[in-house]
Amino acid sequence: MLLKRFLHRCQLALLRFLVDFTPPVNYLVFSGAGSADQLCGHIYRAGKKRVLVVTDKELCNLGIVERAISGLRSRGIEIGLYDGVLPDPTFEQISEGSNVMRTFGGDAVLGVGGGSCMDAAKIIAAAAVTDEDPRQWVGFNKIKHDVPQIFCIPTTSGTGAETTMGGVVKNSELREKTIISDARLMPAAAALDPDLSMNLPSAITAATGMDALTHAIEAYISLWDRGTSKASSAVAIDLIYKYLPTAYADGGNIEARESMSLAAYYAGMAINQVNVGNVHAIAHQLGGRYGIPHGVANAMVLPHVLEFCSDKALFALAELGRLVGIGDLNSSNAVLAKDFIISVSDLRNQVGISPQSELIKKEDHSVLAEAAVREGATYPVRKLLDKETTIHILEKLTLY
Ligand SMILES: [Fe+2]
Q: Long-range contacts of range 60-64, CB-CB < 8 Å, 24 or more positions apart?
């Protein structure tokens, strides 16, 4: 384990060097009711003439896409459509979407939807202008060509993909989620328009909100502390504790919707600087193998991973306890950290997410754990996962 820890630190030092030399990105965000139209105005002023909209069929049928992009139409911008994105987009969908983009001849891509649509939009934009196989870009900063500008309008409040340079794509043959992270995939601008998430089903509000919470907590307890990572994750956690229960119980509450949009955005900003951690390393395996929604998987895994790393992240977890109003001035860090972890489970229960899943199979634990340990070692985590601990966590998540 000592050697593993040493190699992990060496790998992180190299990655940190590369990350610190990544050119800064210029990024715009429009926020509040009606901001989707403001973004459309910005796209028009940026001189875009033909925009490919990447989304899913359900959002088209609900009329949400039309509301989001009506400002492009009214300004005379030609619109192409790829609406074939499914949850956990695959490389096959990336190929379909980039073919549509090539035929259409777009000069920009607009992702409208949840994380899957925005992630797909990013990789489709990159894939449409090259013959390279996007599977080669799995990892960090592997894209070497210019990418058409990417814009995002999230319709859920969770992934923060509108402010991250990463995209998750599923390799359907291996049943694994892969991550392509590249500064060239950073959206140029986004709109956080609560009008578009007003009637989101409560289960999606819960899952996406818990995904945002996982981003913020993983960024806060990260080994790295870069730029605004701590401050923006603290803002996100505060907003999520205050507003997720209301957004879940009363989907039409615009203050709660707007606050959750901001929370997801700030949490995304945090992971864009320090990445995610062991919770995602395990949750990605559950999503890849069983199709468990990303936010649900994170919500199930989060308290167990926090418990696992609480000895190394005691102070940070205690700070979060104070942030969300747990304990008093005399409470010790150990008590605050423990109570914060309990509060995470309570919040998960409050928004109706089960702590276990019957989809997880005991016979898969070993292979799932191996993949999670491998992925976890690529993140700046304070404590490396080991196979035995990960299997123990999977036991707790399995409903027999
Ligand atoms: Fe996530």
A: 64/112, 64/155, 64/196
